[in-house]
Amino acid sequence: MNWKKIDDNWKAFVKENQLIDSSEETHYLYGKQQMYSAVENFHDLQIYYQQKVNKSANPGSSTYTGNGLTITTPIETVEKWRVEIHQLSRWKQLFFSTGKLVIKASHNEINEYIPHAKIEKLFIVCPDLKLSIRKFEKYHNPNIPFDQTVLVLETKHQPETLEHLNQCRDIIINFLEKLVANKKLKPIDS
User: Which residues neighbour 65 within 8 Å (Cβ) at sequence distance 6 or greater?
Assistant: First the structure.
């Protein structure tokens, strides 16, 4: 993992998409953690981008420990939708199915709004990629209240190029555009 390349990609990503950047670095005994953070306004919604990179002083540390990209958007759907999309395991792809996506949805209608091709393309780079609509419980973002419904894209693999960062953003934007166009979102209660 090339930290300089990740830093350059993040700066180009923020500039290209005109995001509001609030990145910071924290020092620890074992190294540093860079927390890249940015916000984007989209159709009266806030999209929060967070990319964590551990710059460990220990060369034997795990690549995926504490690293990753998360894109979180507080939303309110017209119906109480829940969905989780992830990749089918390699063994199951070989023996049981020709599809790559596992979609667990509370309503079948949501399937037509999911950008299937974009998600499958990104699995090559981020095999643990997960897209979901669920209650906000795990992540610590002071701008999102606990128990708020959110659209979340997450992976522990570092997007290695600017194109990969933009592909992650495109999945969220595409999904939100379809929900907005079909009037499936309602204003968030303040």
Answer: 54
